[in-house]
Amino acid sequence: MIGLAGGIGAGKSAAAAAFADLGCLVSDSDAAAKAELDVPEVRDQLIAWWGEGVRAPSGRIDRAAVARVIFHDERERKRLESLIHPRLRDAREALKAQAAALGAPAVIIDAPLLYEAGLDAECDAVLFIDAPREDRLARVRATRGWDEGELERRERAQLPLDAKRARASAVIENTGDVRALRAAVRAFLHERARPAPESPRRNDTMG
Questions:
Q1: Of 51, 74, 104, the domain-final residue
Q2: Which helix (DSSP H) or strand (DSSP E) does residue 21 occupy?
Q3: Does pLDDT of 84 surpass 90?
Q4: Cross-strand pairs, 61
Q5: Which residues is 107 bridged to in the sheet?
Q6: Given a cut of 90, is residue 45 above it in pLDDT?
Q7: Above 50 in pLDDT, residue 201?
Q8: Is the alpha carbon torsion for 153, 154, 156, 160 positive or negative?
Q9: Beta-ladder partners of 4
C-alpha cells in the first residue's frame, strides 16, 4: 500500500497514472467520495439531514451545495465523513484483495487529505510529490480556474506541506516533465518491490 501526498496541483494524479501503467491498482479517494454521493442510501441520508436544497434538478446530489454546508460547519463535515469514510475503507479493502488476486505490485492511495484523514496509517510507504508553488498555481489556474487566493485558502485547511514532506517515506520532484516523473515513479516502485536482502547465515556448528 503506497500513499501519495503533496501540495494541491503538485501532480499526484499524474503519479498515480504512472503507477497504474506499471500494473498497480489505484484508489482515487476524491473520485470515489464523489461517486458515493450518488449511492441511493447516501443520497437519501444527506437529504434527510440537510433538506431538498442539496438535491440538484437532475435528482442527484448537488456537490457544490454539500460543499457549502460542510465548509461552514465543522460538525456537519465530520458527520458526512462518518457516513462516507467507512464505505471508502471497505472499497479499499476490496481493492487490496483484488490486487493480491491479480499479483499487482501495489495498491496506490491517491487521496487529497491522506494525512488529515489518517489514511497514511494504512500505507506501507508514502510518496510525497513535490513541485514549485508557481508550477502548482499555474496548473490549478488551467485545470480548475482557481486564482492564487483560492489556492491559499484551500492549502490553509490542510496540513502544512513541510509537515507532509517530513512524514513521507520518499520525495519525488515533479518539474512538469512527464517522462522524468514516470521514471522516478518506476524507480521508487522498483526499490519498494525489491526483496529484502537475506541475512548472513550463521554457522551454529562452529565454536
A1: 104
A2: helix 12-21
A3: yes
A4: 55
A5: 25
A6: yes
A7: no
A8: negative
A9: 110, 127
Number of other residues whose CB lies within 10 A of the CB of residue 102: 10
CATH number at residue 182: 3.40.50.300
Q: Tell me: pLDDT of 36 over 90.
A: yes
Amino acid residing at 110: D
pLDDT at 176: 85
For 60-94, b where at least 16 C-beta lie within 10 A, e where not — what string?
ebbeeebeebbeeeeeeeebbeeebbeebeeebee
54 and 69 inside one domain: yes
At 87, is the pLDDT very low, low, confident or very high (cuts 50, 70, 90)?
Answer: very high
Q: What is the pLDDT of residues 163-174, one digit of tens each?
A: 999 999 999 999
Domains contained in the chain, number: 2
Cα–Cα distance measured from residue 20 to residue 25, given in angstroms and rounded to the nearest whole number: 6
Contact 37, 81 (CB under 8 A): no
How high is the pLDDT of residue 192?
Answer: 83
Rounded to whole angstroms, how far apart are CA atoms 17 and 135?
A: 19
Q: Which of 59, 75, 104 is the last residue of a domain?
A: 104
In order of 73, 85, 128, 130, the CA distances from 78 in angstroms are 9, 10, 26, 29
The grid coordinates of residue 138 equal 499555474
Q: What's the rounded Cα separation, in Å, for the pair 4 and 53?
A: 34
| 47 grid coordinates | 437529504
Report the pLDDT averaged over residues 104-114. 94
Tell me the C-alpha distance between 25 and 92, whole Å: 10
132 backbone dihedrals φ, ψ, rounded to 5°: -60, 150
